[in-house]
Amino acid sequence: MSIPTVAEEFAQLIEHLRKAQEHCAMIGHLTSAQGSKEDKVLGNAWVTVSELLKVMQLKTTNLAQGRLQ
């Protein structure tokens, strides 16, 4: 078993954030497609979470590069 590195851990973190973002977007679209007004609002909320995860990916990348803004 090898010793984990910061780069390996960062790569895994970004991959998990990316997958979470994709799943939230899919849940949002599937929920919106169910048709009711409540489903559309809930679907939009999931898409918003998806967009926030994209922002988190960017902030995490900037932090890893030492460019925290």
Characterization of the model:
This protein is an all-alpha fold. The chain has a domain at 17-63. It has helices at residues 6-32, 37-64. It is elongated. 3% of the residues are buried. The mean pLDDT is 93.
Helices and strands in order:
Elements: H1 6-32, H2 37-64
Keywords:
69 residues; mainly alpha; 2 helices; elongated
Q: How is the main sheet built?
A: none
| Uncertain residue ranges | none
Proportion in helices:
over 70%
Number of helices: 2
The fraction of residues assigned to DSSP E strands is: under 5%
- In N-to-C order, the SSE pattern is HH
Instruction: Write down the overall geometry.
Output: elongated
Radius of gyration: 16 Å
Class per helix and strand makeup = mainly alpha
End-to-end C-alpha gap: 36 Å
Averaged pLDDT, please?
93
Give me the count of strands: 0
